[in-house]
Amino acid sequence: MFSLIVCTVDRFDQLERLFRSLAGQRHADFEVIVVDQNLDDRLRELIDRFSLDFTIRHIRSPKGLSRARNNGMAVATGDYVCFPDDDCWYEPDTLSTAAGLFSAHSELAIVTGRTLDAEGVASVSPTGETRLALTRWNYLKCGNSNGIFVRRVALAGIGGFDENLGVGSDSPFQSGEEADFLLRALSAGKGAMFFPELIVHHDQVTSEYGPRQVERARKYGRGFGALMRKQAFPFYYVGYRLFRPVAGWLAALARFNFDAARYKRAWLMGILEGYAAWPRWRKS
Fold first, then answer.
1. What is the 8-class DSSP label of residue 203?
2. What count of other Cβ atoms lies within 10 Å of the Cβ of residue 205?
3. Which terminus of the chain has a smaller tally of CB atoms within 10 A, N or C?
4. Measured between alpha carbons, how far is residue 126 from residues 97, 121, 149, 198, 265 in Å?
5. Distance between CA atoms of 213 and 194, rounded to whole angstroms?
6. In this predicted structure, what is the pLDDT of residue 239?
7. How far apart are alpha carbons 145 and 5 in whole angstroms?
8. Which positions ≥6 away from 49 have C-beta within 8 Å?
């Protein structure tokens, strides 16, 4: 059985789309744990309606994505746990594919998959079409939290999501929690592999460079900088990850694309801020 931990706040239509896709799953042995971070009861009608199609367990949680996922994991009963966003959706065979992969690969604690938009184009994270064993060096191209499926028995050795990382946390570090989860799993000796045939859908993240996107880039950059410091990546790796936004910033300036330049600079500054602040935050 699968436990799908769906953390949600301020959304309705996208969550309904996810629920419709779950009602059509070929693998029907699953529960949905809705971790509700809304202050009202906007989800009651939706949950009541889809409870006729599959098991839904409705719990409440304070805001913070990592905190909410941990609260969901605490009550999960399935053999496998996964973390679909409230604005993603599944293919009819997503769960059956994941179940088949776990059955065929008993050595793996985690399988990850691709996230594609409705037209089949990679979205959220760039991922390839070749199976890859996850390593400390390729984790960024091996899926995102939507595409992480983990054996529940392995969670005791991995731990939950770091609540100092991720959207809505009390820290400045508003990303990096799923990468940290995967890296800790690898450090604990858990086998993990990326499978391109395992597909979750998510709309494209906007490519605009408005003030909101620039602000988000800085917050997410802080999370990535904190992640690299926490995971003690070597200086050459940190340097490479800093070089990329520097090069993008300078290239955007050379093209007189000042909106893109502001975005690249925000990401760069966020990484530097997160890398510098992580030790002080953990000691406070």
1. P
2. 12
3. C
4. 21, 9, 18, 14, 21
5. 29
6. 97
7. 11
8. none
User: What confidence tens digit (pLDDT) does each residue in 156-207 have?
Assistant: 999 999 999 999 999 999 999 999 999 999 999 999 999 999 999 999 987 7
Query: Which residue shows structure tokens 């939290």?
Result: 145
68 burial class (0-12, 13-18, 19+ CB within 10 angstroms)?
buried
Where does residue 9 rank: exposed (0-12), middle (13-18), buried (19+ CB within 10 A)? middle
| Cβ count near 196 (within 10 Å) | 16
Instruction: Name the residue among 60, 45, 39 with its Cα closest to residue 15.
Output: 45
Averaged pLDDT of the chain: 94
Is it the case that residue 210 has pLDDT exceeding 90?
no
Contact at 8 Å (CB) between 127 and 194? yes
Q: Are 243 and 188 in contact (CB under 8 A)?
A: no
Contact of 128 with 142, CB cutoff 8 Å: no
Residue entry with tokens 């760039």:
126
Q: Quick one: CA torsion of 125, 126, 131, 135, rounded to 10 degrees?
A: -70
Q: Give residue-wise pLDDT tens across range 243-266.
A: 999 999 999 999 999 999 999 999
Per-residue burial over 22-37, b = 16 or more CB atoms within 10 Å of its CB, e = otherwise: beebebeebbbbbbbb
Distance between CA 95 and CA 78 in Å, rounded? 13
pLDDT at residue 283 greater than cutoff 70: no
How far the first Cα of the chain sits from its last, in Å, is: 40
